[in-house]
Design brief:
With about 775 residues, the chain is an alpha+beta fold. It has 27 helices and 14 strands. The protein is rod-shaped, with a radius of gyration of 53 Å.
């Protein structure tokens, strides 16, 4: 049988081997002629005798067989003619095949092979294929076949002499493959011995075809009967799977005898599997189990006699039995070696599985990539031993690497973003090697500053962690794994487990980051929509006010002018006061209408370089003048605050509105104004804080609505905060109010675009350099400044 393969090169090699079988020596002319004559019962005995007498080897074997004790022939037979008559044509045919095949393959020389197309025809230095033991095995199977065939008394269609030939030639394909491909077959024998398995499977794995196919091809070349061809091809298969052939029992007989001889350790077959149900096989052949056991008991003596006849080796039955015991002991020793090797491999497998299980138990979901790398290092340290451990992993953008060094328990020592070495822009540059030396990659100069904590930087190894997603990270360690029993398969299992955990952490971290970005985008969208709706409402109000202002200002101008004239002409003080009040309210209404136009046509900021301190002091002074009475406004301005690029009139007016609100809300009229730069966002922050009664939730929700006031009706128009917000929005900023009932109020102006153009560029470069930043809301050094 040939192994099925889709590899064209392997298929071509199999064809070459099959063709090479045609170059093996053929049977001699005398043997071919004798086989033809003895196949015909009507052949002339004198022709057969004449052919045998021309071959001294055949003459000797025929006369020796006549003297064998179990045939009951007298020692007085001295002529070939008498021997042929006494033995019969079947026995002569068996002797011819036995002697011819043995002599054909007994020579160790390969001089008969010509034109060697294969590169494996040179003999192996020390061949593991025991030819002497092989022939003993073949003679043992042949002898067992003849004995069972004789004891069955006609149960088989074959005669005992024919059954002997079947058994003798059943494994002829093995010695043919050993003759053609000595080196390859030597590996086959070694592999079968190591695995204590079926040699046919090893033949198909190493060579591409087994001895069954080779034996059948050789039998076809020699023109042997079809029954012999099928025996060589199909023996060893379960009896139920053998095709329904006329000689199916002959195939089953050879399979049974082959198992018996292997179980008795007679000779060497190369097949180390001795399991099989002898009773079932005997039942399939309709043989009595006691008959099989009787043949087994007499097998050693019979094999010794047959070996003497064929000239293989002269041994007493006791010596052959001792040799079988020795072979059994050798086989037992090999089995123990295999079991010990498998036991060690099983312990290593168990160790790796335990390491993987422990790693999964200690790795919780939701880890960051750095935390996952720490868990990998802790697992590696438990398996490899204490030492230096670090991990390279790609950053989110993939253009740089993150280097993380860990303690043996997985605690982080340091982490930094680094540029990859020249020519290794991605981690895939490490290739598919399981473990690479730093020195081999020429990375020692580049890594010297990172692996300084190792015992010897030259001993640092790079272990790529690769899984189905690709190369997830690279583990650096200084442990020598050569003597720790980690095979390539074990190391790959660990690395793939670690790589999958790091890759999953990276995916989870990316998903979490994306979720945070989506949440932030949603928050910004919600705020933008709210501001847009508010702006649209204010714009609609402003457009209405702008339309009404033109129509209302003319009547108000007439009212104001006439009341002023009337006030000057009236002599009655009470009436003059009433006229002045009418004029004042007309002016107030006109100012209110002008304020409403701010929402429809907000003024564009006229930015210029201004001093923030001067602007704040001006707003405080105006607020004090408007509030009147005793007020206390404290200022805290950050030291070395640069000049601002803003419209000081508009920002100052917005600040004035916030200070006025704070003074009106605080019973003690204590207000604090502070200014600083928020380092993470680079925004200018102006805070106005009071110690008043605070704002209700309703007031806080509608604080920026036009005409809204939480005070009694008629006290305030409710446009101050709306106007302030509109002015700050023109600068691209926002106003935020934080307040609690009876806990005071804090109004914050946030201006992102406040630096002069040249300072803004310097600020961006400053942040890009990665200097230390403070948390959002940190004020930095502050110096109180009295207004």
């Amino acid at each position: 049988m040939t192994v099925e393969s889709h590899d064209p090169g392997r298929a071509e090699r199999v064809e070459l081997i099959l063709q090479k079988l045609e170059s093996l020596p053929t049977l001699s002319t005398i043997a071919t002629r004798l086989l033809t004559l003895t196949a015909d019962d009507r052949a002339d005995v004198r022709q057969v005798v004449s052919l045998i007498e021309h071959d001294p080897s055949l003459t000797t074997k025929v006369l020796s067989l006549c003297r064998r004790a179990d045939l009951g022939l007298a020692d007085s037979i001295q002529t070939v003619e008498r021997a042929v008559v006494m033995l019969g044509f079947e026995a002569v045919r068996s002797i011819v095949l036995s002697v011819e095949v043995y002599n054909l393959f007994d020579s160790q020389s390969d001089d008969e092979l010509e034109g060697r197309p294969l590169q494996d025809t040179e003999p192996a230095p020390t061949s593991r294929f025991d030819r002497v033991g092989f022939w003993k095995h073949c003679i043992g199977v042949a002898t067992a076949c003849r004995m069972l065939c004789t004891a069955s008394r006609g149960s088989f269609e074959a005669r005992p002499a024919e059954a002997f030939v079947y058994g003798l030639l059943h494994d002829i394909g093995k010695i043919a493959l050993d003759r053609l491909l000595p080196r390859s077959y030597d590996r086959v024998v070694e592999l079968a011995a190591q695995q204590q398995g079926n040699i046919a499977e090893c033949e198909r794995r190493v060579i591409g075809l087994d001895h069954h196919t080779a034996g059948r091809r050789l039998a076809e070349k020699w023109g042997l009967p079809h029954v012999i061809q099928d025996v060589l091809w199909l023996h060893g298969q379960p009896y139920s799977s053998v095709p329904d052939l006329p000689h199916k029992k002959a195939i089953g007989l050879v399979s049974l005898c082959d198992l018996l001889v292997r179980q008795q350790h007679i000779g060497y077959s190369g097949n180390h599997t001795r399991t099989g149900d002898v009773a079932k096989m005997a039942g399939d052949l309709q043989l009595d189990l006691s008959t099989v056991e009787a043949v087994t008991d007499d097998l050693h003596a019979a094999v010794s006699a047959e070996s003497e006849v064929l000239g293989l080796e002269t041994e007493a039955p006791q010596q052959l039995f001792l040799e079988s015991i020795a072979r059994a002991n050798v086989t037992l020793g090999r089995i123990n070696e295999v079991l010990d090797r498998r036991s060690r491999s099983s312990r290593r497998h168990e160790r790796v599985l335990h390491a993987i299980s422990e790693f999964h138990q200690q790795t919780v979901p939701g880890l960051t990539m750095v935390s996952a790398c720490g868990q990998v290092v802790a697992s590696a340290a438990r398996e490899f031993g204490p030492g230096f451990y670090a991990v390279f992993c790609p950053t989110r953008g993939g253009r740089s690497w993150q280097f993380c060094q860990f303690h043996q328990d997985g605690r982080l020592i340091r982490s930094q973003i680094i540029d990859p070495p020249p020519g290794m822009e991605t981690l895939e540059s490490f290739g598919h090697d399981m473990q690479v030396s730093v020195g081999m990659l020429g990375m020692l100069p580049w890594l010297s500053e990172f692996v300084g904590d190792s015992r010897d930087v030259r001993s640092v190894r790079l272990l790529p962690l690769r899984c189905g997603w690709g190369l997830s990270a690279v583990l650096l360690h200084d442990r020598d794994l050569s003597g720790q029993g980690f095979s390539r398969t074990h190391l790959r299992a660990l690395c793939e487990t670690w790589a999958a955990a790091i890759a999953a952490a990276g995916q989870h971290e990316g998903a979490r980051r994306l979720g945070e970005q989506l949440a932030e985008s949603n928050r910004i969208l919600t705020e933008t929509q709210a501001r847009l709706a508010h702006t649209q409402a204010l714009a609609a109000l402003g457009e209405m006010a702008a339309g009404a202002a033109h129509e209302m200002n003319n009547p108000l101008t007439v009212i104001s002018g006439r009341t002023q004239v009337l006030a000057r002409e009236l002599e009655d003080d009470r009436h003059r006061t009433m006229a002045e009040q009418i004029c004042e309210q007309a002016h107030r209404l006109s100012d209110l209408i002008s304020s409403l136009r701010l929402f429809a046509e907000p003024p564009k900021p006229q930015r210029r370089r201004v001093s923030i301190g001067r602007m704040i002091r001006g707003a405080i002074a105006e607020a004090k003048r408007r509030a009147g009475g005793e007020v206390d406004v404290q200022t805290r301005i950050e030291e070395k605050l640069p000049s601002c690029w803003i419209d000081d009139e508009q920002v100052g007016l917005a600040l004035f509105e916030l200070i006025i609100n704070a003074l009106q809300s605080s019973p003690n009229r204590n207000v604090t104004v502070s200014v600083h730069v928020d380092d993470p966002s680079n925004r200018l922050v102006i805070e106005v804080e009071d110690d008043g009664c605070g704002m209700s939730a309703h007031a806080l929700a509608h604080a920026f609505d036009p005409f809204f006031s939480d005070k009694p009706a008629g006290r305030q128009p409710g446009l101050g905060l709306s106007r302030a917000q509109r002015l700050i929005e023109g600068h691209g900023g926002t106003i935020r109010i934080r307040s609690e009932q009876d806990g005071g109020t804090q109004a914050v102006i946030l201006l992102p675009e406040w630096r002069p153009p040249e300072q803004a560029e310097q600020s961006e470069e400053h942040r890009a350099c990665g200097e230390d930043s403070q948390a959002a809301g940190s004020h930095g050094p502050q110096q109180p400044f009295a207004a």
